[in-house]
Amino acid sequence: MKPCVRPAADAADHTGASITEPGRRPAQDVSMPQTPCSLPRRRFLAVSAAALLGLGAAAPAAARARQVPVPESVLDAGPQAMALTFDDGPSPQYTPQVLDVLRDHGVRATFFVCGDNVGRYPDVVRRIAAEGHVLGNHTWSHPHLGELSAADVRDQIQRTQDAVTEIGGRTPVLFRAPYGEFADASLAVCGDLGLRPISWSVDPTDWANPGSDTIADRVLAGATTGAIVLNHDGTEGGDDDPAPGSGGDRSQTVAALKSYLPRLIEAGYTFTTPDAHPPRRNPSRMFRRSDRLGSA
Questions:
Q1: How far apart are CA 246 and CA 233, in angstroms?
Q2: HSE on the CB side for 54, CA within 13 Å?
């Protein structure tokens, strides 16, 4: 599928304030009749109690608002650590080839799978999980989430969660929006389901089949500490019935992976998955480029 430019978002900091209790006064004799001076104080206490109760009711809502996650495009995983990600699969033809290359080099990756394809190719999903890779949620049918209702967005994500959990044996904790379009509704669902939205920092546009050498050169040029590389191992609708305009030939992606992966390893890069590290404190902060590896 043709990805769009990833969105950027800034994380907000929140502070709280403390309330100092007024000084204690001598206890009032309740047997005494109320005086005009005692009535304002009672009203003040009643209003203050109501206000505090109101704040208590509003606090959970504010907390929920702060829990809406921010898409992450870079990792905080140590020097020369990167993440390889693969979208739109699984594919019965190309995903096994990708898995073979990763196994040969002892590298773990993240596969953002479409729920529709999970049901079509369950054996491939099981192999991804069995070989220690991470299964992420890429919606059911790869729609433009911004064009859907909030209910439909939730259905796209929840159905994929259920399918991956049932077939892959693990509940996804990572989510990537199709085309990188993280609509507000999708981020709200992520907050509800405990999903971390993951974007990318390196896009070689392998979906366009520009040539395996071009794909490899683009990945090598973008390699840096914390980089998240976007690749595609499948297509929505499956190999036999690809979605219109999505293509389906991922042979150049496989060939490029065989080329750039050993070169990155030789240059000292290691590979990890986003779920193995906490989110950056400011996810929108751009990664450092001081250790960039030049293209060959």
A1: 12
A2: 6
Sign of CA pseudo-dihedral 104, 129, 208, 180? negative
Q: SS3 for 6-53, per residue?
A: CCCCCCCCCCCCCCCCCCCCCCCCCCCCCCCCHHHHHHHHHHHHHHHH
Q: Where along the chain do its domains lie?
A: 34-66, 81-276
How many Å apart are CA 38 and CA 5, to the nearest integer? 65
Q: How many CB atoms lie within 10 A of CB 246?
A: 16
CB atoms within 10 A of CB 46: 10
The radius of gyration of the chain from alpha carbons, rounded to an integer in Å, stands at 26
Q: Determine contact, residues 243/237, Cβ cutoff 8 Å.
A: yes
Catalytic residues: 87, 232
The pTM for the full model equals: 0.74
The C-alpha atoms of residue 113 and residue 91 are separated, in whole angstroms, by: 10
Length of the chain: 296
**Could you give the CA distance from residue 32 to residue 275 in angstroms, rounded to a whole number?**
66
* Domain at 81-276, CATH homologous superfamily: Glycoside hydrolase/deacetylase (3.20.20.370)
> Could you tell me if residue 175 is left (phi over 0), alpha (psi between -120 and 50 degrees) or otherwise beta?
beta
pLDDT digits (tens, 9 = 90+) for 206-251: 999 999 999 999 999 999 999 999 999 998 666 666 553 445 899 9
CA distances from 161 to 61, 63, 253 (A): 25, 24, 26
Residue with tokens 């203050």, as numbered in its chain: 48
Give the burial string for 57-91 (b: 16+ CB within 10 Å, else e): eeeeeeeeeeeebbbbbbbbbeebbbbbbbbbbbb
